[in-house]
């Protein structure tokens, strides 16, 4: 069934995906497991877009299906997924990059995991990250980027956060594309997450270290 949900979402079969989610919830399946399966389907959508098999309207439609799944699953999460007890996280796709599938999945998973998420969108200027940290006091920042040019933008963003005197109290994760330990070191980030589950795990870890 798990593969069926991922495939239904990846194939943009809305009615089938929604039916599978309802069936799984009625059978007592783990809500977070369902969201994880949905995330895998969205990753496939992103991969197909990168290969030129899907286009912008397909990305938009997949996002709408994901929202419907979210609406079904959220009430089944502890506290309805509404209690924001995980802490604050700022996230955005760095300047020069407009890919948002990966970012949106992480935002989605952080949200349902109880985090207060500030999604800055795509092609985010360096200063916007700095200003948002000052405004919210968020201790965790996620920088997303799929293109290789994003690595320089990530480095510039982290350098700016450091120059603003905010680096010591801010943990920074990066993700998207082929992030290696070398790129983490190059950008000056604290860690990278290969998927949304790892991103949430890092945010939880850092939230517990005050």
> Over all CA atoms, what is the radius of gyration?
17 Å
Specify the CATH architecture of the largest domain.
3-Layer(aba) Sandwich
CATH class of the largest domain: Alpha Beta
Which sequence of strands runs across the widest sheet? 2-1-3-4-5
For the record, the count of structural domains works out to: 2
Strand content: 5-15%
Unreliable runs: none
Approximate helicity band = 55-70%
Q: Which H/E pattern describes the elements?
A: HHHHEHEHEHEHEH
Identify the CATH homologous superfamily of the largest domain.
Cobalamin-binding domain
Mean pLDDT: 88
Helix-strand layout with pairing:
Layout: H1 2-10, H2 14-26, H3 31-50, H4 56-73, E1 87-93, H5 101-112, E2 115-119, H6 126-136, E3 140-144, H7 150-163, E4 171-175, H8 181-187, E5 191-192, H9 196-207
Parallel strand pairs: 1-2, 1-3, 3-4, 4-5
Helix pairs in contact: 1-2, 1-3, 2-4, 3-4, 3-5, 5-9, 6-7
